[in-house]
Write a structure and sequence with these properties.
Elements lengths: L1 H46 L10 H27 L2 H27 L1 H17 L1
């Protein structure tokens, strides 16, 4: 009998939690709809910019509109995840990944930049060691 009571109690809690979650899901959908509308408005305004007086091509506006659209959707997803309370862990993981990516990129850039100098230094050191 205890098992049946435990299962019934757990199912009751599950139903209550699901009912509490429904308004949050509705608000998240409303946030998504408003966010997508604002992103579409921003991209359409970017595409309407007149570049006749500049040396820029209209493709620049298309690229800029795509960047705004993608960045806006990523930001919108992060806002919704933060609304549900799981955004902080994801932001921390993204920040850590970006930091590691930049560190590797900078290390590779410096490595490639001084590759010739390092080779010359190694050759001169090797020559000095052979003479002795």
């Amino acid at each position: 009998m205890n098992f049946i009571n435990a299962v019934a109690d757990s199912l009751g809690r599950l139903v209550v939690d699901a009912i509490r979650l429904i308004p949050m899901i509705i608000v998240a959908v409303v946030i998504w709809i408003i966010g997508v509308a604002l992103i579409n408005l921003a991209t359409s305004l970017i595409r309407r910019i007149d570049l006749k007086g500049t040396n820029l091509d209209n493709r620049v506006l298309g690229i800029l509109a795509k960047i705004v659209s993608i960045a806006g959707r990523i930001l919108l997803i992060l806002i919704i995840l933060d609304y549900f309370g799981i955004g902080e862990a994801i932001l921390a993981a993204i920040a850590g990944g970006l930091t590691l990516t930049f560190a590797i990129a900078i290390g590779l850039a410096f490595g490639r930049a001084i590759e010739g100098d390092a080779k010359d230094l190694w050759e001169s050191t090797k020559g000095e060691l052979k003479r002795k």
